Amino acid sequence: MSLNVTRNRLMAAVAAGLVFVAQATLADDDHETKEAWRLFVADHTQPVVRAIDFESGKELGRYDTKGYAALTASASGQTVFATQSDSDIVHVIRTGIEFSDHGEHRDLDVSDAGLLPVTFEGKRPFHVVPHDDHAILFYDRGGKAEIIDEAALLEGKADVRTIDTTAPHHGVAVTMGKFVLVSAPDTEAKTKPDELPPRIGLRVIDEKGEQVGDITKCTDLHGEATSARLIAVGCKEGVLVARPGGTGGPKLEMLNYPENLPKGYVGTLLGGRTMQFFLGNYGEDKVVLIDPDGKEPYRLVELPTRRVDFILDPADPRNAYILTEDGNLHVLDVIKGEIVRKANVTEPYSKDGHWRDPRPRLAVADGRIALTDPRHALVRVIDAETLKETRTIPVEGQPFSIVAVGGSGASH
């Protein structure tokens, strides 16, 4: 589906949504609507993750970990995975935010956040991919990936299906129905001691753990995202798209980079939720919008300086936010394929230096952008429409990785 068609459908959906909201309001007068948002913030150097009430800025909990943590929220928002690659362990935090669907409305239940008693250990856990009611944890040096059931986690249990990744490598795994897509390493590559082999493609694994068909070529595979029913991964040749294929397994299609694109490739991907599209980096100072069903799948967007972080707005499907190293926050209209406004929101943070040096990270909560500013021990709250800072939340140490969890729902 092209983004032009998507725009027309989006407008129709908005109109229909207004009617739905009006009808739901009449039907649900006995429901009190409430809203709750929480931030989970990991420190850059200290082994700690904090839960923060977004509205009040109050710290709700402080959770000690073994090392530096990268944070990933589950698809439901009920859990946050704190991945400590250098310490070979993953902790899981219960967010205390739970939604339950009731057809014409959804209920919101709010409870205390807390560290769950289940941990996952293995050699260098890295990529965590949230998907439906589970998450997939990939161990770069462990030669395995784990599919983790979230419902069991919330009960304090570990229900895990282990996938063999052939050999240790910096890779990723993601489920598609009954199948699992797993990166494939070059097992014949000559590597130096302690060096991981390169990625050469993508494998499809069935329920029995057996490979279906041949490895599909995807050189230096890196970056994964889901949009609608499609999964995309970044490759040196292009973006590889997986589509559901029934009992025979997913169908894989390479969207080769066109000749009119400058030299570069995608290594990080984000997937649209309401609309089917992907947003990827393209080098350090460009991004690409990817429409898998479009006649011309790629639209290049050039940035004034190198990109520090970028994120899609889950509630406003046409907005993406990109922070560049000059401290400017850019709003990308994914329908128009262009930057529509920008504002300076923090001091410059150079991309030079180590890739994991303390730099701002972005999260989105109800029309507001939460931006960590590690130099000033702050989370800055930016209005997504005006791009003006509305307030700051002091956070001890060097706030770095951040996720936002929450929304609105009915309370009976």
TrEMBL record:
InterPro entries: AztD-like, Host-pathogen_enzymatic-act, Quino_amine_DH_bsu, WD40/YVTN_repeat-like_dom_sf. SUPFAM superfamilies: YVTN repeat-like/Quinoprotein amine dehydrogenase. The keyword Iron does not apply. Gene3D superfamilies: YVTN repeat-like/Quinoprotein amine dehydrogenase. Residues 1-27 form the signal peptide. The keyword Phosphoprotein does not apply. It comes from the Bacteria. Keywords: Signal. Coiled coil: none annotated. This is Zinc metallochaperone AztD. It comes from Rhizobium puerariae.
